[in-house]
From TrEMBL:
Native species: Tetraselmis sp. GSL018
Matches recorded under SUPFAM superfamilies: Protein kinase-like (PK-like) (SSF56112)
CDD domains: STKc_AMPK-like
Entries under SMART domains matching the protein: S_TKc
Keyword ATP-binding recorded: yes
Keywords associated with the record: ATP-binding, Nucleotide-binding
Entry keyword annotation includes Cell membrane: no
Full protein name: Sulfur stress regulator
CC terms in the record's Gene Ontology section: cytoplasm
Chain ranges of the Protein kinase domain: 15-278
InterPro entries for the chain: Kinase-like_dom_sf, Prot_kinase_dom
Record-level GO BP terms: intracellular signal transduction
Example GO molecular function: protein serine/threonine kinase activity
Amino acid sequence: MASPEDDPLENHPKYEKIRNLNRGSFGFVQLARRRDTRKELAIKFIERGDKISKNVEREIHNHRSLYHPHIIKFEEVFLTSKYIGIAMEFAAGGDLFDFVVSRGGLKEDEARWFFQQLICAVDYMHHKGVVNRDIKLENSLLTNHVKPLLKICDFGYSKSDQNDSVPKSKVGTYLYVAPEVIADRNYDGKRADIWSCGVMLYAMLAGQYPFERPEDKGAGVNDHQKLQNVMKRILEVDYQIPRHLRVSTECQDLLSRILVREPERRITLVGIQRHPFYTRDLPTNFFQVNEQLKAAPLPEDMQSHDSIDEIIREAKNSPTPFDADAEDLYVDDSEAGYFDGDDLDSEDI
């Protein structure tokens, strides 16, 4: 079983471990630095063998295809004797979930700035043909600037227009999933991502999720009942703005256009970027810069697609005891498929 105590970077020629960051069912993440430049990076370690699933391949290739200031930068993949390592940019400010929890919700101007950055990144990502399918506060990392910058991380459930089939699996985090993801049919991953962005905006403002209620946390309510209650509200788009919350009519209007049951009636990214809530206080060159980024090629020194494929093939050849991958866990219709084992407890927000 994967364990950070293994210290896969011991005596590594390029990287040295600083400390453990976190771990989950996928493996574990360490903060490391390059021995030559002293640059700090986050490295995600996954056991070689059966755990190198199609989802891991997608995660690596889809992440590698994106190069944007609001997406955690992919550095490289490499092998140790027991693990495949995915090296990426380190964001020292923690995640947006903890940031929101620590403040009990954000003021509208602050939430708007994070939302503007989020939509900017999602617009770029979708332009490059990648849908994330797990957009949430926990997967939005922050820099440690006074005015933090947001960076999307984790492409473990992502799919590519060019290389993958139409999304149909019930993946993601149930508090953020769109109604069509719950339904038993194919869905447009880009429209589902937009829904999740709306849930994030609500959660940033309210310090709670739009489809949870206090009674879900009452005595005698088990996880199954809570899940059923939340999914029913998602399907009915049953949410309210808390009475104590001071939210502008522009913000409420945008939320009402994002959190729409029928995906074809949901506002598009273009519509969001033209909405008066979104355009308020934007830097003057915001759209221009993003269009330039969408048109720009990947850096010439980016690790090649072929070399990554070779590393992945080699990683698969080290057998480990069977451990079902995420695709196996989430393609069925059971309610258990909606739980992401690495999620923080939703009661904390």
